[in-house]
């Protein structure tokens, strides 16, 4: 089955502009054009586009996605290169995930303070400690 760029935009929740941009950036060399010059997508193209979206949505740079797609287009000889590229990307995703989890822990700690029945007292203690810290360091008190 084949799809127009409008069909693909609807199926992928990507705008037509984004699909054209991806093509201009060299991410869609596998997409054919018909006699009138319009892009014609196939199911296998949608599968590769899904991979592109996965990589983009997890923070991979366009240049790195292009490198990956170029390797895909070269065939099985590039499997080691593709694996290395994806492994490095996975490592970056996991590092970012750890950072997000650490930040989430900080948010959860603040929520716990504000949910505490003694939240007012706890907040006043934090303010008093911050004020004392400023005074001890000869700085103006912003509180």
UniProtKB/TrEMBL annotation:
GO molecular function: DNA binding; DNA-binding transcription factor activity
Domain of life of the source: Bacteria
Family matches, as Pfam families: MerR_1
Domain HTH merR-type intervals: 2-71
Keyword field contains DNA-binding: yes
CDD domains found in the cross-reference section: HTH_YyaN
The protein's name in its UniProt record: MerR family transcriptional regulator
Protein source organism: Lactiplantibacillus fabifermentans T30PCM01
